[in-house]
Amino acid sequence: MASLPRIENNADVRFLGAKLGEVIRAYGGDALFDATEAIRKASVDRARDHANGQDGLGNRAALDLGLGKLDLDETLDFVRGFMLFSMLANLAEDRQGIAAEPDADFASAVATLEREGLDHAAIADLLAHALIAPVLTAHPTEVRRKSMIDHKNRIAELMQLKDTGRKETPDGDSIDDAILRQIALLWQTRVLRREKLYVTDEVETALSYLRDVFLPTLPALYQRWDRAFGERVPSFLRPGSWIGGDRDGNPFVTADSLRTALRRSSEAVLGHYLDQLHALGAELSISSEHAAIDDAVVALAEASGDAAPTRADEPYRRALSGLYARLAATYLAITGKAPARGGHLVGEPYANPQAFRRDLAALAHALSANSPLRSGGALGRLIRSVETFGFHLATLDMRQNSAVHERVVAELLTVAGVEADYLSLDEAARVALLRRELASPRLLASRFTTYSDETTGELAILAAAAEAHATYGPQCITNYIVSMAESVSDLLEINLMMKEVGLYTPGRTPDDPPVAAIMAVPLFETIGDLEAAPAVMTDWFALPETAAIAQRRGHQEVMIGYSDSNKDGGYLTSTWSLFQASTALKPVFEAAGVGMQLFHGRGGAVGRGGGSAFSAIRAQPPGTVQGRIRITEQGEVIAAKYGSRDTAMTNLEAMASATLLASLEPARLSNADNTDFQAAMATMSDTAFHAYRDLVYGTKGFRIFFRQMTPLAEIAGLKIGSRPASRKKSDRIEDLRAIPWVFSWAQARTMLPGWYGVGQAIAAFPDKARLADMAEGWPFFAAALANMEMVLAKSDIAIAERYAQLVEDPALRDPIFGRIRDAWYQTRDGLLTATGQSRLLEKHPALDASIRLRLPYIEPLNLLQIELMKRHRAGEDDPRIGEGILLSINAIATALRNSG
Q1: For labelling alongside 566, which of 265, 342, 494, 599 has CA 20 to 30 A away?
Q2: What is the span of the domain harbouring residue 619?
Q3: What is this structure's pTM?
Q4: Across the chain, what does the average pLDDT equal?
């Protein structure tokens, strides 16, 4: 039987593709299968010609003709088939893990550092205060429904069984038949959401990853690290989330959504602990007749109240019965409902996770006296879970725009009779006023006064955060991100608002500094913000009270934004500005005696900071990682990196090892090279910045060109997020969020945010030999070029030209697209010169093969999307046209993988 993917060498891809072919033939019939196969062959031939140096344009007419024979129903089925193949190809690729990188695992990183002269104690000291946190966000570039992801994950589990040589599942089904059944279910599952996503939907989606992947994976990963390091490592890697707390531009995030996110997370983690305790009760059947029992275990057993005669000689089981009763009471106290599996004993709720851990540690200590039971086992994993996840599962960040805080504080001050026109004050006057108010125990808000909806809502969500601290513990919310932070007053304002709900307490004496239960974190997003970041933080630490808070905490976080800085200044300038800001912040923190913790706001696409996290972390400026780093994980990247336990373990380990290396490795550049290379980057960044700004913001009609060329308007029809696409009701690019900006260019195969301006910068730089040296010896520049190279390989300027034909005015279209086309070739040629290659990805064969595998399946989807967009924009109202456009957006995003 013919099968769709005959061009691939990967055995998994061939197997899964053959099964998909069976499903298409079974449910779509021979006609659909034959038409799909004919289009596939034509597209493969075109891709082959392109790879052999031909432009493939001669095949395009035949390819278009084949697509033109499909009616609308067949078009929808065809798009679904190509989308499913891309999904299955992704699955097969993920099973092979990340392309092998040296030191991308913890043991190798430790060995490398020890070879370079670092002793064990130095590594242990770093780990003692380290924090690595992947932070899940709800940014809407995951276009697949959760049902589709679930079926894909079941296929992955079945493939793992197949790897072991088994022919049947534990239930007796044939594994091959079970895989075929899951693919058939994928074929028959509705791809598109019919209803808009709400914040609660996003909470549940993130919870599925935290509960099903992070909870079981991290304790197992820590056991591996303990063995590799030769001692128990601290619990330095902990997950975070923005979902339910990030209300910057999202009016649907409220106090209720924050409560929901925290309650659902707590239910999940406490339910997991109860299940683990139940399993431990079955396992620890140790009898006092055959083992000496530690006094602490006896005390826990006696305190449990478990008088069952069958367990009279089993103190561990009796002790665990008591722990279970107390945790069940904790579950009831926190969530307001009884756990699914109730116990027969009644206990007092635990005051905090630390109290629960102490009881578990007492059992573990007693077991360690019996050497065969010394290793972690299930009890060790549960202790590690409590250290890592607490009673909250994932630390939830709060975020809001500084402009909102300004208005709220202005209203509070006006109503309280303190300052009638706060917004008219200059920065110095604002800071002086805010410091006076923060030093006073007097509150501004009154329950007898009516405030605006905005102020009421902001105070309500902060009150919910204070409730959460009391309920779940202070680790449930530790950071408050202030978007568009431009000054010290932007940070003081959130402290003043937190004081209203008891999250900020003024100091009583000079020796008793104030306490901020949640850290105000500035987010520097634009190029200008990044340049100003060191000055803002210098002024922040110059205030004695804020410096004292940071010194007591030991660190201060600064978030740097990749997305908006890219949209503001282009790829090269954004990347360089982030590097410069990080470098310039380091001495500011050193002078203040405060540890620096950078929070990297990365997206999936290279235009939003995407690419290999391992390479990106290692490419950070020397001395800026310091063992502490947080990174956003957004959209489709979450499913790609954390869709299964195996992929999660691989990616989390890569993140940990990269952080270890970036924190402790000696500098890899001499001072002279570092100076020369940075001077070269500054020059190229300036050239790239002006080229990018001139095109995007300086070209008349560019926003019309962009909106007509790309499926920006059509993307709005996807029910993929709760947040509006623009910050304001306007068609200005400045007001468009970075995600739809990048996502639209990716759909049109232009990928402009990931490369435009770089070609002009390389062409204008006279010393090409120095560029080659930078590409070879500077991790920062090498990573920047590698990410851009991936973008260029995924783009297709000939297909982009097809999209440009959607622009109605030729006088607008032709000159603008001509500039884009010429710059693409110039960028490609410049990159090849700098890296010493004859073609893109010549030095990266695994990535090259991965992208080439998908290209024949993306081009027909692009061509169909263009045709459907033409018909839709011409006024055709057949609902299948709109559905086809949305399906094609879904399919192209699936095939490109990191497009948003």
Answers
A1: 494
A2: 100-129+525-668
A3: 0.90
A4: 90
